[in-house]
Design goal:
single chain, alpha/beta, Rossmann fold, DNA polymerase, domain 1, 3 domains
Length: 509
């Protein structure tokens, strides 16, 4: 592929501008590119949104041969290849989603050295056809994306990643046996989050030779972390609705633990906040439907996506302004990668976690039910304990994240719930003054009505019902009948209570 009419190869800066339209590199991108160009092995821990793809795409355009990229998700591969093709960069991929004819055609082009970048999953490394094609291809660089998947201590352990070092050995032995050119195959591993232990395991399992390590600060100063402690499922759902209403004109993600939760939360939001364009996403949907919903979200036709952790890795939507965890993540690695979907444009974003104590038992039960070794279960339980400590501890959230990932933060962030002294859920600013005032009037009018009727106030309306009315502020009897605790038998009394509270609130404002 011709980059220019010059007789000398283009510089990294020229390629950055010509193909990607940027004038300047982000921190450490250029140093990583230089190391790869020097054929050094590299381990780069780069937080979400720091531009890791350019770190291996630019060397691929500067140097001869093919760069082979190992990537764990088809959606992630397709997204990167499409972006490269739009920029007139020769790139291809090999996935199970392609037809047999498409696979054969791309393998042929790969063998004939027609791709500058070629993407495959780690499972592809055991395919005989692919291995045979690799022997004829001109592979000069091997990129391992999402490299934490190689580690049992990582949050997305994937056994197929353990085959990568065998694949490298296979290529080297073939080259040696055929008397091929003594061209070194350089390796570069990239991941967004990795503890010191995970980094060591990546280096060991990939057999990286004296790798140059780049561990960028993963601290995202534009993310405001808030944990909301709730005492019941009712309050958990109420606070979820409050958060969604607060951000109703912005793009967001709600992460849930199970497929059933994804659907339940979807119907909850559709019932009480019907104007918000929302949908759900989980692995139980057919692949075509998952892809369709992802596209709608990426193009802004869905504002809010309720998703299991099947959604997230490689998602590159810049303007996500909030992420809500309906349940805690099973590990701090998972949590920090998932909240990293927010604020990728560098603008402020808020991430919330709704902490309901019963949720921890769901995680524990799931771990014990999984088919894995006792050692693997122990690892999962330890990670869950670290997540529990993070949620329950009243220390700056950013400092705790930094400590966990061996990147100490000297000063409190000044913007998480702990730093802002908002660990008490009643202090959260998204409960509007209007809602507070209306709720107070509902309580007062309920008391007066109870005295008049000589009954207990809770016989008229429970505290839960008042919370719902104060938040939703129903306008009609039909709206009232949507609420739990309102039926034909008491709707007149509830309507009277609401009307008198509205009148009193209006007179005070």
């Amino acid at each position: 592929m011709a980059h220019s009419d010059r007789s000398y190869p283009p510089t990294a800066q020229q390629i950055l501008k010509q193909y990607f339209g940027f004038d300047q590199f982000r921190p450490h991108q250029f140093e990583i590119i230089q190391a790869i160009n020097r054929q050094q092995d590299v381990l780069a821990v780069m937080p979400t949104g720091s531009g890791k793809s350019l770190c291996f795409q630019i060397p691929a355009l500067m140097q001869p041969g093919t760069t082979l990229v190992i990537s764990p998700l088809i959606a992630l591969m397709k997204d990167q290849v499409n972006h490269l093709l739009i920029k007139s960069i020769s790139a291809g991929l090999l996935t199970s989603a392609m037809t047999q004819t498409q696979q054969e055609e791309n393998l042929s082009l790969f063998r004939l050295h027609k791709f500058k970048l070629f993407y495959v999953s780690p499972e592809r490394l055991k395919s005989r056809k692919f291995l045979q094609a690799s022997l004829k291809a001109d592979i000069r660089r091997l990129i391992i994306d999402e490299a934490h998947c190689i580690s049992e201590w990582g949050n997305d352990f994937r056994p197929s990643y353990r085959r990568i070092s065998q694949f490298v050995t296979f290529l080297k032995l073939h080259k040696k046996s055929t008397g091929g050119k003594n061209q070194r195959l350089s390796l570069a591993a990239f991941t967004a989050t990795a503890t010191s232990r995970t980094q060591t395991e990546i280096i060991h399992n990939l057999q990286l030779k004296n790798p140059q390590k780049f561990v960028l600060s993963l601290i995202r100063t534009n993310l405001r972390m808030q944990i909301i402690h709730v005492t019941s499922l009712f309050y958990k759902n109420l606070y979820l609705l409050r958060l969604v209403k607060k951000h109703q004109h912005q793009n967001g993600i709600i992460y849930v633990y199970s497929r059933q939760s994804a659907q339940d939360i979807y119907y909850l939001i559709k019932k009480f906040l019907p104007t918000i364009k929302t949908n759900y996403y989980h692995a139980g949907l057919k692949k075509a439907e998952r892809n369709h919903r992802e596209r709608l979200f990426m193009h802004g036709e869905i504002q809010l996506l309720i998703a299991t952790n099947a959604f997230g890795m490689g998602i590159d939507k810049a303007n996500i302004r909030y992420v809500i965890h309906y349940q805690p993540s099973p590990s701090l690695e998972n949590y920090y990668q998932e909240i990293g979907r927010a604020g990728r444009d560098g603008q402020p974003a808020t991430v919330y976690l709704l902490h309901y104590p019963a949720d921890w038992f769901i995680h524990q039960t799931f771990i014990h039910q999984q088919h894995m070794t006792e050692q693997q279960k122990k690892i999962k339980i330890n990670k869950l304990k670290n997540m529990f400590y993070f949620v329950k501890n009243n220390r700056c959230r950013t400092q705790m994240i930094g400590q966990y990932f061996s990147q100490p933060v000297s000063q409190p962030c000044g913007q998480c719930d702990v730093c802002l002294h908002q660990t008490d859920r009643t202090k959260f600013s998204f409960i509007t003054d209007q809602e507070k005032q209306f709720r107070q009037q509902l309580i007062e009018q309920r008391r007066r009505l109870a005295q008049k009727l000589k009954i207990s106030p809770t016989q008229i309306a429970t505290n839960h019902l008042l919370e719902q009315i104060a938040f939703l502020q129903p306008k009609t009897g039909t709206d009232l009948l949507q609420l739990a605790g309102v039926g034909q038998g008491n709707i007149q009394l509830i309507s009277q209570l609401v009307a008198s509270s509205v009148t009193e609130t209006g007179s005070q404002s």
